[in-house]
Amino acid sequence: MSEMLSLSGVTKAYARGKPSEVNVLQGIDLMLQKGEVVGLVAPSGAGKSTLLHISGLLDVADAGDIRVAGEETRGLSDRKRTALRRQAIGFIYQFHHLLPEFTALENVVLPQLANGVSQQDAEARALKLLDKVGVAARAGHRPAQLSGGEQQRVAFCRALANKPLLLLADEPTGNLDPATSDVVFAALMEVVREEGLTALIATHNMELAGRMDRVVRLDQGRVLDKS
């Protein structure tokens, strides 16, 4: 296997140089191989969201190296960082953030159109993904007409629409009740495996984390365990 995400010596502090400075990440070393699904477990405030944002090129580290899909990101212009993010990375958040005025199908089609995919191909890809997670029958419904679990499954499809190489998820089922969380997470894992994705998934749920290839534990800005 080849590496899909590599972080070496990554640090991040907020309010740098001030008495109130907070060292969020302190020398993070982490590597994900192609096709590997890794759980990220951390208490609140330990830096997991910052780690995901830096890994996904939404934030910039103060120091250290980040490689995505084999490409070194240090020194990339904003334009090139954006292009790499669009081509290689998919994001899922705790809250679905679907566009309320568009249907489930349209929410999955739009990112593809922005990436230059034709309407026909975008709709075919969207319907395929919605079918995989069991919500194809709801494709014509707007988010307000969907249950919480259905909304999050549509959000999964949107994140995967442009065929990313790396999926980053921040508590993707954290806003759902336990029974729905289990069903939705199973649907996510099935699609991730079928698509051959590399994934870093943050969760507080140790049972869900145990279904992944391995678990990374983060505390006070440091990786404590990479078993």
TrEMBL record:
User: Which intervals hold domain ABC transporter?
Assistant: 5-227
Q: Give GO terms: molecular function aspect only.
A: ATP binding
Sorted alphabetically, which Gene3D superfamilies does this protein's record hold? P-loop containing nucleotide triphosphate hydrolases
One Pfam family named in its UniProt record: ABC_tran
The question of whether Transport is a record keyword is answered with: yes
* CDD domains on file: ABC_MJ0796_LolCDE_FtsE (cd03255)
| Sorted UniProt keywords | ATP-binding, Nucleotide-binding, Transport
Query: Which InterPro entries does the record associate with it?
Result: AAA+_ATPase, ABC_transporter-like_ATP-bd, ABC_transporter-like_CS, ABC_transpr_LolD-like, MacB-like_ATP-bd, P-loop_NTPase
Residue ranges annotated as coiled coil are none
Family affiliation: Belongs to the ABC transporter superfamily.
Concerning PANTHER family, the annotation shows: IMPORT ATP-BINDING PROTEIN (PTHR24220), LIPOPROTEIN-RELEASING SYSTEM ATP-BINDING PROTEIN LOLD (PTHR24220:SF689)
What is the protein name for this chain?
Answer: ABC transporter ATP-binding protein
This chain's source organism reads Celeribacter arenosi
